[in-house]
Amino acid sequence: MRKTFFVILCLLVISTLAFADPDIFLALNGAGEAETLDPHYMYDTASGEIVQNLYDNLIMYNRGSSSEFLPMLATEVPSLDNGLLQDDGATYVFPIREGVKFHSGNIMTPKDVEYSFERAILFDRANGPQWMIIEALSGSEFYSIEDWFESYAGMAYSEAVDSNRNPTSPEAREKLISFYNEVVDPLVEVEDNTVVFRLAKAFGPFMQIVSHYAGWSAILDSEWCKANGAWDGNPDGWWKWHDLEPEETPLHAKSAGTGAFKLVEWDRAQQKIILERFEDYWRGPAELKTVIVWNIEEYSTRKAMLEAGDADFAYVPTQFKDQWTNVPGIKIYQGHSLPSITSFFMTWEIAEGSEYLGSGKLDGNGIPPDFFSDVHVRRGFKYCYNGEVLINDVVRGLGVLVPTDLPVGYLGFDETLPVPEFNLTRAAEEFKKAWNGQVWEKGFKVTVLYNSGNTIRQTAAEMFAYFISLINPKFKVETVGVQWPTYLASYAKGWLPAYSLGWLADYADPHNFIATYYASYGTYGAAFGDKYTEWAKVNLDPLIAEAVGEPDVERREQLYKDIQKIVVDNVIGFPLYNPTGFVVLRDWVDGWFAHPLRSNLYYYDLSKTK
């Protein structure tokens, strides 16, 4: 009771401040709090929102465009016309802005840029975002630093470094050091007041990978990082900072950026982050002085505060959109296209240590770790998804059914492929074939997970539980909601049997969806387990590599269609829906505009008028 009273009191105090002071902006999120503030670890929207406000990048998008760029910490955008894009698109030269201050007071130099990208490459945590930078720089040959090292050294990274992060032998140590000196260091170099990126070959989406909103390419204060326990910048020992857990990095709950806002506090107990305007920001101070980003799972609380004018923004699940029609003091933006897909995944081989296997056997009380490696199981689940009901009744029309995990309008989108079909008769037929009839005979008990507060994913999970139970009384589906950081951590470890996740494009190219979802090395594909990765290496990876490097647009489009045909036939997960935008703000908030690649809100653009 005392805890509840304390939370309500805090809400009232902050609400009063937000209402009374146009310098304070209160944003109420509801789908999960940030996982980490380390730009090189974070790979989720909640974390990305904070990182994009704490850090700057070399370049930035021109307002709502996803293909036009403006200078940011660089003074020019490389192009053929200005001579900064060279060697047939394989070399990018960025002149670095002078006099820019970090939050620490240190002055940014080109060395900070070099350090930031080298630290990112070496950090390369499992299922993290650095595969994009590694892929671009290596000429699409490698997607992890460990694979790159193995190719260079002729020995697996796990053979070179032990579980305590120590080299296994003097020979291994020398190979690790020379790998940095000969492979990593030449990729990003300082030349006078410029930073030069040398790619193995031209890579079309490179500019989008390094642009603002892409937190993994944020520029860090190298002096602060080294002084506070991040990579020390030396070739000898870089492996001690590779693939860290969030709490192991000094940037987890602190910031070392040049961004428009500084971090004041991250209250993990209340899931609340407070940012303060950086008065020495190189573009001039933001209009807003204080920003409070608070994750409050209860929609009713968020609704009440926004209606009362005690908050400036609130996350509103689309199933509640009709509640906001003609509400006094409310401004709505809706229907804008989103390069995003929310999908349902089934892990082909669940990793050891998962608590979601029940008995671990096909005996009606659990599932074996490789339960979903049988395509008939996956097809059975897909036929139990009623997408029209979810979109019409839950998403309230703000979404469309699509055949694969590629948004409408992207190169290779194939409207001739079938969208998910709800058909319990066909679902039963597939389940009867699964595991040579054992699934139908013995039954199963499986856990479908969603992140707490995400009512759309919760509804989808409950839909599976209801319809699958109708098919056979021996089929049991338990739905479980967990906190967002726990959800992400369990997903990264490969512990989730069946679950939903969304993907907001990192950059506006089909490769960012196709590789992410289906490649053996993809952020989502790699989490499906060893059985999937071995299958994908043979059946999908060669086609994906060919597609991203194909200069002929028509041939490239056909390759993506071929890939998606394989995906549909083998049910490599399936899309729940392709959402369209819905944003609810108080009408005194100015400056918001839609951008397909931004994580939630960028507060430098916003102001309040009363």
Topology:
Layout: H1 2-20, E1 24-29, H2 45-54, E2 59-61, E3 69-71, E4 85-86, E5 91-95, H3 110-123, H4 131-137, H5 145-153, H6 157-160, H7 170-184, E6 188-191, E7 194-198, H8 206-209, H9 222-227, E8 261-267, E9 272-277, E10 290-295, H10 299-307, E11 313-314, E12 330-337, E13 340-346, H11 375-382, H12 387-394, E14 399-400, H13 424-433, H14 438-442, E15 444-451, H15 455-471, E16 475-482, H16 484-492, E17 498-504, H17 511-518, H18 530-539, H19 541-548, H20 553-570, E18 574-586, E19 589-590, E20 607-608
Please tally the helical runs, counting DSSP H or I stretches of 4 or more residues.
Answer: 20
Q: Which architecture of the domain at 340-580 per CATH?
A: Roll
Structural class by secondary-structure content: alpha+beta
* Rg over C-alpha atoms, rounded to the nearest angstrom: 24 Å
How far is it from the N-terminal to the C-terminal residue, by CA?
Answer: 36 Å
The CATH class of the domain at 340-580 is identified as Alpha Beta
Main sheet record = 7 strands, mixed
What key phrases describe this protein's structure?
610 residues, alpha+beta, Dipeptide-binding Protein, domain 3, seven-stranded mixed sheet, five-stranded mixed sheet, 20 helices, 20 strands, globular, disordered N terminus
